[in-house]
């Protein structure tokens, strides 16, 4: 099974036609095609020695829109394809189980929800409800080992590991919301916002200078437009839980809660990576 995202991918026309062609029923049409082609028996060949240029979103707002699309789209695709996969007579039973359970359900849906619910809801609430206790091995040891193992592939970024954990917990809120929108086909399910890249903006400006025309104007976001109220609300919730633990707690969870509060607050005011070139 392949989660091809379309980046630097080269398709055979025969594979596209055999899989049913390009469809725009979700915002992850590349994944849609890849899943259907895989179910038809096509296999993907990876060229590890081929290097392709890519660029990360240049602003936090662009990153949020991108993550919404990448979380909402697969969940919506799962909703549309699950019965199609079940009824597929060309696919073996265990491959169906893998595609439905592992590829979609665990990796595209449950992973975000578990992270958000446990670290941002359940763990803080255990402080307010002392009768509920989470073993230290479940709250700290196992998640720490899993995170360290995931970071082995990027040793140059090991110094960012701790903040990456806090930031991923924040983004799990955004991804969980997007996943639920995709599953329920709610309001923003088909929202498509092109992920603006700083390189695109600079290239347009350079082309405009060469053509002796006025470069496209760049607008600054007002501070109020950058505010993310959901993240700010959770920052307040976690801060209060941290204060309660500091006064009455025994596990010193307030250290984590206050650090997580800071991360929620920073993302809540849209401060992370917000670099908007002025005109």
TrEMBL record:
Q: Which UniProt keywords apply?
A: Cell wall biogenesis/degradation, Glycosyltransferase, Golgi apparatus, Membrane, Transferase, Transmembrane, Transmembrane helix
Record-annotated Glycosyltransferase 2-like domain positions: 10-128
Q: Which InterPro entries does this one have?
A: Glyco_trans_2-like (IPR001173)
Predominant subcellular localization, coarse grouping? membrane
* Record-level GO BP terms: cell wall organization
| Places the protein is found | Endomembrane system; Golgi apparatus membrane
Question: How does the UniProt record describe the way this protein sits in the membrane?
Answer: Multi-pass membrane protein
Give the residue spans that cross the bilayer.
97-129, 141-167, 227-247, 253-276
Its Gene Ontology molecular function terms? mannan synthase activity
Protein's recorded name? Glycosyltransferase 2-like domain-containing protein
Q: What is the lineage of its organism?
A: Eukaryota, Viridiplantae, Streptophyta, Embryophyta, Tracheophyta
């Amino acid at each position: 099974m392949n989660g091809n995202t379309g980046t630097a991918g080269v398709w055979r026309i025969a594979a596209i036609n055999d899989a049913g062609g390009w469809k725009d029923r979700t915002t992850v049409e590349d994944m849609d095609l890849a899943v259907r082609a895989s179910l038809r028996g096509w296999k993907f060949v990876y060229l590890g020695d081929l290097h392709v240029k890519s660029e990360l979103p240049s602003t936090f707002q662009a990153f949020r829109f991108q993550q919404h699309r990448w979380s909402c789209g697969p969940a919506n695709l799962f909703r549309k394809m699950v019965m199609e996969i079940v009824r597929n007579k060309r696919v073996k039973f265990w491959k169906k189980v893998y595609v439905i359970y592992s590829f979609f359900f665990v990796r595209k849906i449950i992973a975000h929800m578990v992270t958000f619910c446990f670290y941002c809801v359940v763990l803080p609430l255990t402080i307010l409800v002392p009768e509920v206790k989470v073993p230290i091995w479940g709250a700290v040891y196992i998640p720490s080992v899993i995170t360290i193992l995931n970071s082995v592939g990027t040793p140059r970024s090991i110094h960012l590991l701790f903040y990456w954990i806090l930031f991923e917990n924040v983004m799990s809120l955004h991804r969980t919301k997007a996943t639920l929108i995709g599953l329920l086909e709610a309001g923003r399910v088909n929202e498509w916002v092109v992920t603006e890249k700083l390189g695109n903006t600079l290239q347009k400006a350079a082309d405009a200078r060469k053509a002796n025309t006025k470069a496209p104007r760049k607008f600054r976001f007002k501070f109020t437009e950058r505010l993310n109220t959901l993240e700010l609300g959770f920052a307040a919730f976690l801060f209060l839980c941290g204060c309660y633990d500091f006064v009455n707690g025994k596990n010193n969870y307030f250290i984590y809660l206050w650090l997580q509060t800071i991360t929620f607050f920073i993302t809540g005011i849209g401060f992370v990576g917000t670099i908007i070139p002025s005109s």
